[in-house]
Amino acid sequence: MARYLIEIQHSDDHDGCVKALGALMDYGSHLVTHAEFGCEDGVHCGWLIVDVDNQDDAQQMVPPQYRADARVVRLRNWSLEQIKTMVKELKA
Length: 92
What we know:
Layout: E1 2-9, H1 14-27, H2 29-34, E2 36-38, E3 43-52, H3 55-59, H4 64-67, E4 71-75, H5 80-91
Antiparallel strand pairs: 1-3, 1-4, 2-3
């Protein structure tokens, strides 16, 4: 499985926030309970980090009305050794 960050944008007013929360709740209450939102800081997005088989599976977790504008990003981390090797190769 791979890890993906899903970003769901919505309109920047109270109704937009409530509609986005409602859409996530209707689509799957487990989604809304695991989502993080930036609305109180003026960033009208919700973010989820999910472990799924592929990008399409992650995209399908987005409610249909937000899917076209959602951003799905595969996440990756590197070990300290991998980073040291990459930096060393870059300097060579």
